[in-house]
Every structure is written in structure tokens, then in C-alpha cells.
């Protein structure tokens, strides 16, 4: 089938590559012509494991192409996937202007009946509003706006798109649902659950999923605070809780908090949405508050151990909001860097993929070419992102490089016994600290 994809960001590009991989003829469009030119030359706009290879294979097979033209994107297509950004407004509500514009542009040049697929995260009611707005254009062909929320995680976007747990499509039209089911048939045949609902339910399910996952993380972070006060170990508490299949252990890792471009903004947008319908979803505010406290708790640990922060060199290991990506948007590591810089510390970071993005976002931040470079003469190191290479550090070399061997583990990545044996003062999250000696200064 021929399909168009509008927007080649973190959702659009993996979606286009995977739709081409499962046999469709895909034209992906973006209004950013430099991005399109780079993609035609095989240069990816961001790092995502396996994506460059999948894009190259799609292009070579003649099933994937890139354009900045709406006409080319939609010519002969049965569906157009809208994957443009929905950035937050100052109120926290999602800004849907890009979605409206992209849909208008596409519908006006459609060459036949078309399914417009909302893939960007949008509030419930968007499809209905979009339908009303588009009908004003008196288009030649029929169109249906369906909701098909994306659940992919950055860092595993290709795997999540190829083998998702479920394909959720919301539409009131059996015709549109049939087209969507046909597009996803190869993925459904591989075991993904096909869930068809009405549009508002699908839209709400996306927000609800992200909010629920954020809530799990915040629950663990609140638990971590309590464990620190009571001497319990949050990892063991979660292990004990998670052995009950009704709870499970996933997304209960306490640490420096969640970041990225989805959880923080979607949570606020969800709260605004509830407000609009007159429901005070106070639980969501609490989730955000606990998440803010998670990064503040790490800052407080640094202050407790370093006393004055002015001019002290502090290393941040990991700058992306999670491992496997170079994305630093709303990364707690960068929030921490800003707090430390505001207090006069000298902050040096290292990330296997995100150094350049981090420096662009936080100009005062120094970055090092490797992890030992970041640790050199540091009085304290903070693990902000659980990149596997940090777990494999040569601990002796790391301790020698540092001015004081003090590690605050914002992701509970390291083995406390190994850290203790290597002579570190080791301060994890929600677990008993190790080797805490007299004040270093
Ligand atoms: C999320 C959703 O998981 C995905 O389904 C949705 O489509 C988009 O938003 P993503 O933002 O890529 O995906 O990352 P995710 O892996 O969910 O992690 C989000 C944040 O939570 C990261 O900062 C991560 O470090 C943090 N996190 C995750 C925790 O702090 N603890 C955990 O147990 C899990």
C-alpha cells in the first residue's frame, strides 16, 4: 500500500522506516528542507539504534523516499500519518497548530479517499476538531481522521515499532479501520494485539498510558525518599512488590526522575485536558511534584557531601534523558547541571551520544571526550544516565582520576559492594550509602 508520513522526528522517521520495511511504499515529508536533504544523503537527524540501517534498506529497495512536497507525499496514498510535533504552550496544553496545518496541507492535495492518521500525542477531542476544521475545505475526496497513538520508546524505537505489544486505532468508520488493519497486517500477524476503539478512547488511552508510567516512576521515587529515611533498600522493596504479577517490576526504577519529550509534557497536557472537562486530576500534580523532588534530592546529596559548591569540579556521567539516545530534551541531568552552575560549581559532563546536544542546551557545561576525562580531578561524580559503559568502568582507574572518590548514583547503576571495595564513598538512591567517611574538605 502507498502511505505518506508527515514529520520525520522521533516518531515519524522510525514509523516511515518500519512501514517501508513491512512492505509499504512510503513517502516521508518534512517542511525542514535541510533535514530532507540530509536524509536523502543517508544522514540521520538524530541517533536511534538500527534506524540508519533500516532507512538505507528502505531507500535501496525503492520503498522509502523523502520529500518536502505535500503533493508527492499524498499522491496515490491510502493513508497519511501525521507525526508532527505538539509542543507545550505556556499553559502546558499541547499546541496543535502544526497538526492542523499538516492535515490541511495534505487533505487539499489528496488524489483519492484518504485516512489521516493522528500519530502525534494529542488531547482527546482532537480528531473531532480536526474533522470539523478540514470539512470547511470542501475537499474533492472523502477523508477520515483516525487516532493511532504511538507507544514507542526512544532508544528502542525500531524494535518497538516492528514488534509493538498493541496496535491501537480509534475511528468511528469501519472503512478507515479496515484500511488501518490492512496497513498493520504484517505486524499484527507477528503477534501485536489489534485494538480498535472509538477515537476519543484511543486518544485518551495514550495520555493515560504515559501518565500511568510516570506515576509508577514517581511512586518509586517517593518510596526511595522513605527508604533513605528508614534505612530500607528501594531495590529490594521493589523486587518484593514486583514479585506480585499485579504490580510487576517495570518502570519502578527510582532515581533522578523521568525526563524526555513525552512524560513531562504529556502529563501536564493531560492535567490541562482534565481541567478543561472540569475534572481535577490532582494525582497528576503529585506525580510531577515527586519527579521535581527527585532531581532536587540528588542536588541535596551533592551539597551534603561537598558543602560549598563554588568552583568545585563535579562530573555528570550521562546527559541524555535515558540511555540509547542523544536526546537531551527535559533531561534531569541537564536540570541538575543548571542547578549546579547556578551555585557556582564547575560542571563537566560526558555522554556517549549526547555531548553536543547537552552543550547546546546548557552553554556553561563543559563536556569531556571520555568518561575518565570527565572524572579527572572531579571532587564528586553523579551518574545521571544508566549507559552500560558506566557500569563497566575500571573502578581503580576512575578512583585514581578523581580528586575525591565520591559517586552519587542517580540511577542505582553500580554494584555497592564493588564501589565500597574500590574505596569509593558511594551514595545511591533509596539505598544505604557505602563508605561514607569524614567530610572530604
Ligand atoms: C515514553 C513511553 O515509554 C512511550 O511508550 C511513549 O510512546 C513515549 O514516552 P520515552 O520518553 O522514549 O518513552 O522513554 P521511557 O523509556 O519511557 O523513559 C522515560 C523517562 O523515564 C526516562 O527519563 C527514564 O530514565 C525514566 N525512567 C524510566 C525512570 O526514571 N525509571 C524507570 O523505571 C523507567
How would you sum up this structure, described in words?
- With 441 residues, the chain is an alpha/beta fold.
- It has 2 domains: 2-197, Rossmann fold, CATH 3.40.50; 198-224 and 252-441, NAD(P)-binding Rossmann-like Domain (Rossmann fold), CATH 3.40.50.
- It has 19 helices and 14 strands.
- The strands form 3 sheets. The chain has a 6-stranded parallel beta sheet with strand order 3-2-1-4-5-6, sandwiched between helices. It has a 6-stranded parallel beta sheet with strand order 11-10-9-12-13-14.
- Helix 1 crosses helix 3, helix 12 (263-276) runs antiparallel to helix 13 and helix 13 crosses helix 14 (332-342).
Radius of gyration: 24 Å
The low-pLDDT segments are: none
Shape: globular
CATH superfamily of the largest domain: NAD(P)-binding Rossmann-like Domain
Structural class: alpha/beta
Q: What helical percentage do the residues reach?
A: 40-55%
| Strand neighbour order, sheet with most strands | 3-2-1-4-5-6
The average pLDDT score comes to 95
User: How many beta-strand runs?
Assistant: 14
Largest sheet: 6 strands, parallel
DSSP helical segment count: 19
* Proportion of residues in β-strands: 5-15%
The first-level CATH class name of the largest domain: Alpha Beta
CATH architecture of the largest domain: 3-Layer(aba) Sandwich
Overall tally of domains: 2
Q: What oligomeric state do the depicted chains represent?
A: single chain
